[in-house]
Design a protein that fits this description.
This protein is α+β, with helices and mostly antiparallel strands. It has two domains: 2-81, Glutaredoxin; 89-195, Glutathione S-transferase Yfyf (Class Pi), Chain A, domain 2. Helix content is 57%, strand content 6%. The protein has a four-stranded mixed β-sheet. Helix 4 (89-110) runs parallel beside helix 7 (160-174) and helix 7 packs across helix 8. The two termini are 25 Å apart. The structure holds glutathione (GSH). The site of glutathione has 9 residues, from helix 4.
Length: 208
């Protein structure tokens, strides 16, 4: 399998789950900071949406959505228990978390990166940011409460939602969104970062 990723973006979470799975894979970096025509061509050939992650399976088929890549990889390594058994309530709960991270958390915190594209007017940007901060804090407060007394979002089991939440919550420092009033999130980020597979990916992507 091949994973196309850009360092520190949501695709890092797929990199983490591949590493956690113990499966053989190749990680190929696309550096958007030096987005060359060649980079853009590679990505858009594989995914007309032009976004990462992109997973190319051993038979040459592609997946380009985080949720699909996470569940596909987890199911290829059932002995790693990255997802609860099919048909269980816990399996649905793991999807519930994954969907929350994908549709709510990612979109609210990721939106900060695009503020300057909304308007060049600094007053408009400030007003937009104020609104985004309120929305993001609502989600951060929810996650903080949900993590009370737990190691991971599902409790004891580390699942793809944790890999994804870890990456997205990590963006808060890049977009200057303080999380000091969310102690459960802070300790969670430390716990996830200390997993060997996560530490290996952060190193491989040059993030530590
Ligand atoms: N719907 C996709 C979204 C993926 C996504 O937003 N990728 C971002 C990185 S975090 C990206 O490639 N952005 C580049 C761009 O939009 O130009 C998913 O859930 O996987």
């Amino acid at each position: 399998m091949k994973l196309y990723y850009s360092a520190g973006s949501c695709s890092t979470s797929c990199h983490i789950i591949l590493e956690e799975s113990g499966l053989k894979y190749e990680a190929i970096e696309i550096d958007w900071d030096v987005a060359t025509d060649a980079n853009i061509e590679v990505v858009s050939k594989l995914n007309p949406l032009g976004t990462l992650p992109i997973l190319v399976t051993d038979s040459g088929k592609t997946l380009d959505q985080n949720l699909a890549i996470h569940t596909y990889v987890a199911d290829l390594a059932p002995h790693k228990n990255l997802l609860p058994v099919v048909g269980s309530y816990e399996r649905a709960q793991a999807y519930n978390w994954l969907s929350f991270v994908c549709s709510d958390l990612h979109k609210s915190i990721g939106a900060f990166f695009g503020i300057s594209r909304i308007s060049e007017d600094k007053n408009v940007q400030a007003a937009v940011r104020k609104n985004m901060v309120e929305t993001a804090n609502g989600y951060l407060s929810y996650v903080n409460t949900q993590l009370e007394g737990k190691d991971y979002l599902m409790g004891k089991q580390f699942t793809p939602a944790d890999a994804y939440a870890f990456v997205v919550l990590g963006w808060t420092k890049w977009v200057e969104l303080p999380i000091t009033s969310y102690p459960n999130i802070e300790s969670y980020l430390g716990r996830v970062a200390s997993r060997p597979a996560v530490a290996a990916v952060l190193k491989a992507e040059g993030l530590v």
